[in-house]
Amino acid sequence: MLNFSFSNKTRIHFGTQQIAQVSNEIPLDAKVLITYGGGSIKSNGVYDQVISALSEHTVFEFSGIEPNPSYETSMKAVALIKQENIDYILAVGGGSVIDASKFIAAAALFDGEPWDILAKKATVEAAIPLGAVLTLPATGSESNGGAVVSKLATQDKLAFMSAHVLPQFAVLDPSVMNSLPPRQLSNGIVDAFIHTIEQYLTYDVNGKLQDRFAEGILLTLIEEGPKLFTDQKTDDVNGNVMWSATQALNGLIGSGVPQDWATHMIGHEITATYKLDHAQTLAIVLPRMMWEMRETKEGKLLQYASRVWGINEGDTETRIKAAIEKTEQFFHSVQMKTRFSDYQLGEEVVDVIVGHLERHGMTHLGEKQLVTLEHSRNILAASL
Ligand code: NZQ
Ligand code: ZN
């Protein structure tokens, strides 16, 4: 196992009616900015619960944070924070609202041009404290220090990490998932699945517990994910998916093991250019990434085939092929498509995305930096 230091200070309040906990989590004398997206929280009752929990607090609102949140929108919230001396942010939404809120929290206290936090990896020295009410289980953003923000003007979609933007608390109420449209349920299951894969399907360092945690998350998503599209959907099923998504990217399963993230880096470029949802891009790239990098990932691919899919027969290549097929079938079973052509995109994407990867210095990706532009080109071309 590799050396690691691990801490995750986000306090989780899991279960129905837990939004009320917001009231105790945020200091009564705080000036609170509630940040949210396009308004789903107003029609599903989440907004009312938040407002009721904050009835004794001084509250401001900032709405209109878009999916794949933009720098441009975020900076409007920064201006409001400065104008009103706001000192606490409550993000109510999915990964986009939480990510934007993290950037806003850091940008409001940043000395200089905040885009440098993303573009130049400028260090975040401080951030306004924030909490999260999660409405879409997918990204793990509710209890990690990462955020992804796009600059519309230049079509850049970039990530930053800072312990300062780790949410102080997060409310995970599985019943909020009942208003999610099927497309967002698909996105959530697939994003959580691929977060797990990116920290598991690398090379063996004898991190036995991390491997088994990861396999547990994958197996839970495989068992529970498809139920979300049937009448077997209950709060327990919602809860199992929600907790899996949080655990997939709260730092635990990735501690002490190599991490890949090549699929994500290529996926971000696809979203920035063609506006596909984040998880849609991952489901296109991952199966071909597994095949293209099968030699360097061979040991873990065979372990994945055996422990997750029960594939133990046949030679190495046969077992790897079967595991990739099972993975793709699983994506289809949760109503996720896996080809560019499913989104009316053709071979033009290959040169464009390779060009963006090059421009962003993404020329050696993956756990061993072996995913060169040539590999990325092969992966994209095979995914049409
Ligand atoms: O805007 P609203 O009205 O809230 O509607 C949203 C949005 O249209 C809707 N929605 C959310 N909860 C709902 C709901 N609709 C009905 N009922 C509910 N309970 O769903 C739509 C998509 O929301 P979004 O937040 O964009 O989805 P997701 O959580 O998948 O977040 C995606 C973003 O997170 C980034 C992605 O790149 C993308 O920008 N990621 C963040 C990561 C992190 N911070 O660690 C890691 C990920 O790999 C990912 O890159
Ligand atoms: Zn993701």
UniProtKB/TrEMBL annotation:
- The source's superkingdom equals Bacteria
What keywords were assigned to this record?
Oxidoreductase
Ranges for domain Alcohol dehydrogenase iron-type/glycerol dehydrogenase GldA? 10-174
Indicate the segments forming the Fe-containing alcohol dehydrogenase-like C-terminal domain, all copies. Answer: 189-356
List the InterPro entries. Answer: ADH_Fe/GldA (IPR001670), ADH_Fe_C (IPR056798), ADH_Fe_CS (IPR018211), BDH-like (IPR044731)
Concerning Pfam families, the annotation shows:
ADH_Fe_C, Fe-ADH
Q: What is this protein called?
A: NADH-dependent alcohol dehydrogenase
List the lineage, top down.
Answer: Bacteria, Pseudomonadati, Pseudomonadota, Gammaproteobacteria, Alteromonadales
